[in-house]
Amino acid sequence: MANSIKIRASEKGGETTVKALISHPMETGARKNSKTGKLIPAHFIEEVVCKHNGTTVLTAEWSGGVSKNPYISFKFTGAAKGDEITLSWTDNKGESDSKAAKIK
Known about the structure:
Strand order of the largest sheet: 4-3-6-7
Mean pLDDT: 95
Helix content: under 10%
């Protein structure tokens, strides 16, 4: 799922705000296909990790209870404008994606 992440980060007053939108179907495995009546297989993000200059600042463990195309926003301290952050995810089918951005 290449190019599934849109990410933005900004620093103000010593606090960095990270906002990201991930394109992913996030199927729980409990929903049925309306035409066939068969269950749609589970397909959801299990782990999201954000690193600042190689150091992990966020680890989130998700399940099928997260909505389609999830949005995530969080704050952390210790970064400066121009530093790099990297957000990556891995799902229950082994698919993954990662994207880096500079803090503005």
